[in-house]
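Hey Z.,

So I finally got round to the CA2 thing we talked about over coffee. Here's the setup:
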Amino acid sequence: MATLYILNGPNLNLLGTREPEVYGKQTLADIEKLARDAAKKYGLEIEFRQTNIEGELVNWLQEARTKAAGVILNAGAYTHTSIAIHDALKATTMPVVEVHLSNPFAREPFRHHSYVSGVATGVICGFGARGYVLAIDALASLLAGAKA
Ligand code: CA2
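And the result:
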């Protein structure tokens, strides 16, 4: 069974505890459950992880090169700062969907640049937890070889 890596960056472990108006009320565990249910429909396996450490995300992206059919990455604030994550993504060949709960373009200017977007297959932002499900739909469709 093909596996999707769903990798979450710094502070996303705090979801559901603060700023629900920005990030929604769901916890990361709620999002993991949503993702597992969505993936099951497509017969896809999920490897769902969170870290506050930049290098750990880099290690997981390197691991994904041989173990994952696709990656969903919410790199949190590292999205806007990390050349290391950019370089790790450049070294991957599987499809990568960048996901954000909020819409960074509607927020502070320092969130308007992403080191991930230019090396991702696509970007989904502003749809809250639903964005992870949309990303699974997109990857399932790509992996099935859909033309549209
Ligand atoms: O909207 C997203 O998903 C972000 O990746 C979330 C990051 C932010 O730095 C990006 O610009 C956009 C921050 C996640 C922090 O999450 C918290 C949740 C609850 C309480 C505090 C932080």
